[in-house]
Structure prediction request, 519 residues.
Amino acid sequence: MDFANLASQLNAGTILPEGIVIITLLGVLIVDLIVGRASSRWIGYLAITGLLGSVVALYFQWDSSNPISFIGAFNGDDLSIVFRGIVALSAVVTILMSIRYVEQTGTALAEFIAILLCATLGGMFVCGASDLVMIFISLETLSISSYLLTGYTKRDPRSNEAALKYLLIGAASTAVFLYGASLLYGLSGGETQLQAIAHGMSVANVGQSLGLVIALVFAIAGIGFKISAAPFHQWTPDVYEGAPTPVIAFLSVGSKAAGFGLAIRLLTSVFPLVAAEWKFVFTALAILSMVLGNVVALAQTSMKRMLAYSSIAQAGFVMIGLIAGTDAGYSSMIFYLLVYLFMNLCGFTCIILFSLRTGTDQIVEYSGLYQKDPLLTLALSISLLSLGGIPPLAGFFGKIYLFWAGWQAGLYGLVLLGLVTSVVSIYYYIRVVKMMVVKEPQEMSEVVKNYPEVSWNLPGLRPLQVGLVTTLIATSIAGILSNPLFTLANNSVTHTAILQPPSVALQNANINAELYEQQ
Prediction:
């Protein structure tokens, strides 16, 4: 095989965005090695520049005529571009909120950013991987980096405990997912590429075999862990409470988006013959996630644990779009994850800022905060109300779109349960807002009474301010000016071959499988 033919088959330009992230990662390590701790003042900006460059590269790859690369192992279609963009943007905001936080913990910023970029790289590859080997390597890159980030503040016993729990549960979920992948490899006759697996199983007529059902259950277990869906949520509350707050901000958006991106690609490509079965399983997961997440969140006293259970409930809402299995369903998932990126990271930025100034994240300590810090109160109120689905904020339109897609698909019971649990969630969100805004001066908490004077001139606070204002503005206007995001979500679905009608998708699968065999 000559070099020109090999280069055309590799089509390495498809992973240019990931290449930019790799170069940025190497640049961060080299600069830190040469300059040392003195680089911590601007090394975060270097990483942000690289990530934004990666997002720009993704923009120019939109509607590519040849998205398949590395002999079918990676698919840079429009669906993957949107999910990769969500992962990269979540890393950008995470770095903005990390600089002051990491410096205050006394740990090295460059290593933290390097590990975060590794996690970002893994998440971006997961969103486009269409080969079992690449899926597994990408998942492990994301997972191992997440374990390291969770235990990064090694002097904090809670961080160590969270990292250990996350590692043990994550290792178990990885083993289960890998066993499901090995079953797919065997059932398809030794194929690893997703379209070739679907073709191999259709030829072997194993559509309703026990092995395929077991592989499906194991694959869903691995995905459920990544998106923190009940009953695979056991790690979520403890990790959210013990891990550094910027880390859980990234996990709540970046890791969840990667999990849903993998779910759409894997389920629609490999398991179309058992679509009724996987939709039934995800219906059970959605019901459990919405009920457990919202009900248990009512009893939480810590903001981080409350947002942990909120994250579980949000996964349940997003699964409605996945279960619908229509263009509107997938579009609603993407739209909700786009607005969830802004509103959730806005909330975590507020929690970081409050904890930096007070040293606590207990809900009762927010009493009377409006008297001392109006901007923080406004931003946290907007983000929580948006998460609750209060109009005209972004979260309201995201939930309406999800519920509408579910209703069109005939998921009446699931949509009604989603509406009821949304009402429940509004209670614990508004409780925090009421505590911050309505409390009389004499009911102010001791922490707020001793609240330091608001100043943005301290080292590392300017990036935090930029992240706070940016996410606040995006959360506020993304609902009112949501049409561009709607269009982006719809186009990413309609331009993606694997989400076309079954007859067209099967034809594409057979064509891709034949090409794969020829190569």
Notes: The radius of gyration is 22 Å. Residues 327-358 form the longest helix (32 residues). The longest strand covers residues 68-69.
